[in-house]
Amino acid sequence: MSEPKLVYSSKINKIRSFALILIFVGFLFMYGGILLKKIEWLMLILFALGVLAIVFSLVVYVWIGTLSLRSVPVVCPNCNKPTKMLGRVDACMHCKQPLTLDKDLEGLDFDEKYNSKRYQKKK
Ligand SMILES: [Zn+2]
Question: Transmembrane stretches, by residue range (predicted)?
């Protein structure tokens, strides 16, 4: 049995697509509200949910901004493009090459667990 091959995308990219999905969800809720405008209470609920989703996605965007400030800019050894790293292990934004800042982890398989506090304590 072969292990499923996982493609890791950069954390910042992941959060960014999450925020984008939230905006779409927000607009979908509002669109649903417009379609159901005959049922006033339902329209109001859908609009409220839509506004909430969009506000939340803006919060996520601000969060990405602060995360970007804390991230470490590196040049990817694989594609030679500048990318940003969050935590001890992350993937290149352009080619998904797993990257690490920790010399001890070099050459090991990419694993999100290296970022967890528990793993760092165990070491
Ligand atoms: Zn790269």
Answer: 15-34, 41-64
